[in-house]
UniProtKB/TrEMBL annotation:
Catalytic activities: D-glucose 6-phosphate + NADP(+) = 6-phospho-D-glucono-1,5-lactone + NADPH + H(+)
Family: Belongs to the glucose-6-phosphate dehydrogenase family.
Listed pathway(s): Carbohydrate degradation; pentose phosphate pathway; D-ribulose 5-phosphate from D-glucose 6-phosphate (oxidative stage): step 1/3
Gene behind this protein: zwf
InterPro entries: G6P_DH, G6P_DH_AS, G6P_DH_C, G6P_DH_NAD-bd, NAD(P)-bd_dom_sf
Function text: Catalyzes the oxidation of glucose 6-phosphate to 6-phosphogluconolactone.
SUPFAM superfamilies: Glyceraldehyde-3-phosphate dehydrogenase-like, C-terminal domain (SSF55347), NAD(P)-binding Rossmann-fold domains (SSF51735)
EC number(s) given by UniProt: 1.1.1.49
Domain Glucose-6-phosphate dehydrogenase NAD-binding positions: 14-185
Name assigned to this protein: Glucose-6-phosphate 1-dehydrogenase
This protein's record includes keyword NADP: yes
Highest taxon in the source lineage: Bacteria
PROSITE patterns tied to this protein: G6P_DEHYDROGENASE
Amino acid sequence: MVVRTIPVDSFDLVIFGATGDLALRKIMPALYRRFLAGQMPHDARIIGAARSEMTDTQFRDTVRAAIREHAAGADPGQLDGFLDQIHYVAIDAQGVGGWDHLSALMRDDVVRAFYFSVAPSLFGDLARRLSEHGIADGDSRIVVEKPFGRDLESARALNATLARHFGEGQIYRIDHYLGKETVQNLMAVRFANILFEPLWNAQYIDHVQITVAETVGVGGRGGYYDHAGAMRDMVQNHMMQLLCLTAMEPPYHFDPDAVRDEKLKVIRALEPVSDADIVRGQYQGEGDAPGYLEDVDNPDSRTESYLALKVRIANWRWQGTPFYLRTGKKLRARTSEIVITFKPPPHSIFDEAGPRANQLVIKLQPDEGMDLFVMIKEPGPGGMRLVQVPLDMSFAEALGPEGADMPDAYERLIMDVIRGNQTLFMRGDEVEAAWAWVDPIISSWDDSKHRPEPYDAGSSGPDEALRLMHRDNRRWREIRP
């Protein structure tokens, strides 16, 4: 299968925070891979902006080292061509230094995009100075990273700050999970095939599980994470988006606002979650490996590194079908997946126990693909014995070498910014609606003295999370490599 690469228009992309971890580990390698694919025009320019004083040559050397480390198979000849398109400006986000230099670099006849790879506290300063210096115009785009606020009040304030200088159609709130190939394929499977959509409702689906499991702890992010926790760091954004794409109604067209309108309806239909349907956990130390409390250097922390929720959607499609969400650090394996478990047949004609329920497993990482589990007859004589087998659609196998080397999320999303396509980016009202649902849950934790349940590193999480499912006569899908 041939993967088509469609070049984008020429652009000037300014990356604020260009010497930071995100820019060097994700953004620059993603742009380099788009350069290799022939998607970047030869006259496109990438302008790094940060506080450090350095020349273009020094910054290019920094980018060269980052690409060699984070972009597999970097071609020295091709890399030099990419680096020729990179420039650097030393800039003070909260002062006057560097803004005239940046203004002089910008061209009038190309797409202007500005990536805020900085702390959210600087978003407003950058937006104001881009406007004051005439660097951004009505066609410019800005990209803002999470966390987009830490509660509803701060998210509203941040939206209002950006709205003073940019229209909603210019603001790209990025969530890299939406750039994953399988996440987009979820929409294709649902809305481009008659097979699934008639069954995609409470009449035929027993429950849905969404899992994002990590093997690492909080690492060097302890200071940030202990003020965020799994709810703010994962559920309010990444997992909320996966929930919306799984549960939303068909949009009238694959159009940015049509898709986001349907996602917003799902968030607004979420019922409040009771304490009985929530499990919070903290990983414990093992041997010489520190536990969560040591990693964040806070022995009194009540912040969760693991969270499991039972969520209900109050609408006709999903009434009575629960969605179970779980995410955690230091778990058994690194995996992200959505599991759609269908109801069993209403009557079994076979003598043995009834057939197991069909499942559609949508694998987001580490190996993107889908498995549809169906019942067949076990081969061999001796009667009708049933066995469940997967119909496997691994992108690497089904689509050939090109399928195995699909663009990663940042590659796709940055190119969508240049195209002006907001389909895979969150809208302001969508972010605020998510916080409106999350805030009461977090507030109830703040008012409680209950500590998160301890769990062993390398396990599947707290035992209480297993009981959350068992009391409904259901089981989590095993977390496995």
